[in-house]
Every structure is written in structure tokens, then in C-alpha cells.
Amino acid sequence: MPRLSERLVIYSALLVLCGLTGIAVAPAAGALSFFQVVVVIELIYWLAKPARDAGRNAGH
Question: Residue 18 burial (CB < 10 Å; 0-12/13-18/19+)?
């Protein structure tokens, strides 16, 4: 499964869970939770992403 579709599945499930939190607690709490988790996921994705040409510059 491509990485974009994996993240979309994760975001969909997260949206459902945060939506339920918003219904149970407060809409602002659900929205803020969703935003915070999405920012952390994207930050980890971009920090852990390997360089595209890492193999080319390795001196092989």
C-alpha cells in the first residue's frame, strides 16, 4: 500500500475517533486533538523520510 493511502486510512480513523471525542466532550477538544496528532504524524514522516539520492552519493 502506498504511503499516501496508508496515511489517509490513518487520518480517516483518527477523524472518526476525534469526532467522537468532540461529540462526547466538546467540538474544540476533538478538533484540537485531531490537529495535534496530524502535525506529529507529518513531522515524524518528514523527519524520517530517507533522502531520494542517498544511494547515489554513497560513493558506490
Answer: buried
